[in-house]
Amino acid sequence: MGVSGSGKSTVGAALAAALDVPFQDADPLHPASNVAKMAAGIALTDDDRMPWLALVGAELAAAGSSGGSGSGLVMACSALKRSYREAILAAAPDTRFVYLEGSRELIESRLENRHGHFMPSSLLGSQLATLEPLQGDEPGITVELRAGEPPADLVARIVTDLAGVRESSGSV
User: Fold this and answer.
1) What distance in Å separates the CA atoms of residue 12 and residue 141, rounded to the nearest whole number?
2) Distance (Å, rounded) from C-alpha 61 to C-alpha 172?
3) Strands in 59-132 per DSSP E
4) In terms of CB atoms within 10 Å, which of 81, 105, 167, 169 comes out highest?
5) Element (H, E) at 16
6) Which fold has domain 8-169?
7) Cβ–Cβ < 8 Å for 121, 78
8) For residue 109, what is the enclosing H or E element?
9) Which among 79, 93, 78 has a CA at the least distance from the CA of 170?
10) What percent of the chain lies above the pLDDT cut of 90?
11) pTM
12) What is the distance between the alpha carbons of residues 169 and 172, in angstroms, rounded to a whole number?
């Protein structure tokens, strides 16, 4: 989880490979109307996001261990607000979040170098204003992004931190 440009897709794909589970990006689950709004530089409302979050939760539930058919899934999803994470958890209670936390300057520099994504860098401010960082009573970890850190090193830190979550909660 995290704002656009935090590396959710890149890190998520590498994390999925490290955990030997599938990877899915939540962006394609957005309805066309949401994509059109974002592409036009219009921030989504909670009402825009809720059907999308229901789809995210359903995908995670289908892949999870509690009633699902699979062995897990890494999903790249912004999940900026606690209420969004709660909506996901309502459908997929075994979900563990990995919050990719980075400075505004780091994220802006990444967005400036990213091409071909429907989310314009002009929406970073609204995402940061919406962001409610992961809290200690939520299932997951916060990982600080470091400028220049190779994705493999970041994934290694995440795997180590997730092992601690698994030991304390019984699952990841």
Assistant:
1) 14
2) 13
3) 74-76, 97-101
4) 81
5) helix 8-19
6) Rossmann fold (3.40.50)
7) no
8) helix 104-112
9) 93
10) 60
11) 0.84
12) 8
Question: Distance between CA 172 and CA 163 in Å, rounded?
Answer: 8
CA-nearest of 96, 104, 115 to 15 is 96
**In whole angstroms, what is the distance from residue 141 CA to residue 109 CA?**
24
Tell the residue number behind the tokens 């394609």, with chain if given.
28
Q: Are 98 and 1 in contact (CB under 8 A)?
A: yes
3-state secondary structure of 169: helix
Which pair of tokens denotes residue 36? 């059109």
The secondary structure of 158-170 as a DSSP string is HHHHHHHHHHHHS
Closest of 39, 58, 40, 61 to residue 50, by C-alpha: 58
To the nearest whole percent, how much of the chain has pLDDT over 70? 85
Domain residues of the chain, as ranges?
Answer: 8-169
Burial class (CB in 10 A: 0-12, 13-18, 19+), 47: exposed
From 131, 119, 127, 125, select the one nearest 30 (Cα to Cα).
119
Residue owning tokens 């589970």: 21
Which residue in this structure is represented by tokens 């979050």?
53
